[in-house]
Amino acid sequence: MKAVIVKKTGELPPRVHNLLRLAEVAGIPSNPEHRRFLGELSAYYIQSRYPEEVRTAGSTISRELAGSVLRRAEQTVQWVLSMLK
Fold it and tell me: pLDDT in tens for each of the 85 residues of the chain?
């Protein structure tokens, strides 16, 4: 998303990891489901970034949920990359 911001604005993107905020700044169109997933994905990033949160996250995230989120994240990456073409 940061690359989309640079491409569209010619400016450096904000130094944040909040995907909802980055999508907004990038002007990436999204529906409520996309926004919900970006918020969810941002929350997982925060949990994985800080070791004390990983233990908590690991106890609540099943292998199936992790696989589902990973597949949706991969689709989102491809969607965003298509905006750079």
Answer: 999 999 999 999 999 999 999 999 999 988 999 999 999 998 888 766 766 655 555 567 789 998 999 999 999 999 999 999 9
Q: Which two tokens stand for residue 12?
A: 């450096």
At position 12, the amino acid (one-letter code) is L
CA distance 54 to 52: 6
- Structure tokens of 61? 């995230």
Phi-psi region of 31 (alpha: psi -120 to 50; beta: other; left: phi over 0): beta
**Which residue's entry shows tokens 């995230």?**
61
Entry pTM: 0.80
